[in-house]
Amino acid sequence: MIDAKRMARYDRIYQQLQELIEGRSPGLIAAMATTCALLHAKMPHHSWTGFYLLAENGELHVGPYQGPVACQMLRDKGVCLHAARTRQPVVVPDVHAFPGHVACDPRSQSEIVVPLIKEGDVRGVLDIDAHKPGQFDEDDIPPLERILSLLDPYL
Ligand code: SME
Questions:
Q1: Best residue among 36, 48, 60, 71 to mutate for probing ligand 1, ranked by most atoms within 8 Å of CB
Q2: 90 CB within 6 A, ligand 1
Q3: Alpha helices, DSSP H only, in the chain?
Q4: Rounded distance, CA 99 to CA 70, Å?
Q5: How far apart are the two ends of the chain, measured CA to CA in Å?
Q6: Ligand 1 contacts CB of residue 79 (under 6 A)
Q7: Does 2 have pLDDT greater than 90?
Q8: Cα of 105 to ligand 1 centre, how many Å?
Q9: Fewest CB within a 10 Å sphere: which of 2, 99, 116, 124?
Q10: What is the per-residue pLDDT across 63-76, written as a single tens digit (0 to 9) for each?
Q11: Rounded to the nearest 10 degrees, what angle do helices 141-148 and 4-21 cross at?
Q12: Dist. CA 153 → ligand 1 center (Å)
């Protein structure tokens, strides 16, 4: 269960992003950069907030993000690739318990990944890390998917 405060924050972030992105962002990268800047700034538990984009060779290449320098390329394993391959969001309360987790930041303890899907194809993922365990649960998925829907016209 996420608390009411976080839910209210998601609502405010959605409304602000709607004003910033809808009909205003010049393209996908600008819309993604704006999304992760706001999400990262307004959610104190986020240690890293960003996007990976699916490349033609099946790798994930880093896109706009906020936080410490991250892995530029993900292949073969990891939470992000798992979400991209299954086309399903993944909540990881303890990253050490996820086989193949890629530790770009060794301080990361929990993580959530939500795929970006356009016409049935995965285009990339939103990845969020936290330095404390158990910072995300299933209730984070619908508000994050709502926020990501603002990127649909740009995918
Ligand atoms: N932990 C991710 C890698 C990306 S970083 O967290 C920014 C994974 O296992 O795919």
A1: 71
A2: no
A3: 4-21, 28-42, 79-86, 141-148
A4: 19
A5: 31
A6: yes
A7: no
A8: 8
A9: 99
A10: 999 999 999 999 99
A11: 10
A12: 26
Six token digits for residue 58: 């099946």
What rounded mean pLDDT belongs to the chain?
A: 97
The answer to whether 78 touches 95, Cβ cutoff 8 Å, is no
Ligand 1 within 6 A of CB of 36: no
Distance 104 CA to ligand 1 centre (A): 6
pLDDT tens digits, residue range 104-150? 999 999 999 999 999 999 999 999 999 999 999 999 999 999 999 99
Provide CB contacts within 8 A for 56, sequence distance 6+. none
- Protein residue with least CA distance to atom 3, ligand 1: 102
Please give the model's pTM, rounded to 2 decimal places: 0.98
Instruction: Give the whole-angstrom CA distance, residue 47 versus residue 4.
Output: 21
Which uninterrupted H or E stretch holds 23? none
Sheet holding 110-118, edge to edge: 73-74, 60-66, 48-54, 121-130, 110-118, 90-92
CA dihedral 15, 16, 19, 23 (to 10 degrees): -90
For 149, residues 6+ apart whose C-beta sits below 8 A from its C-beta are none
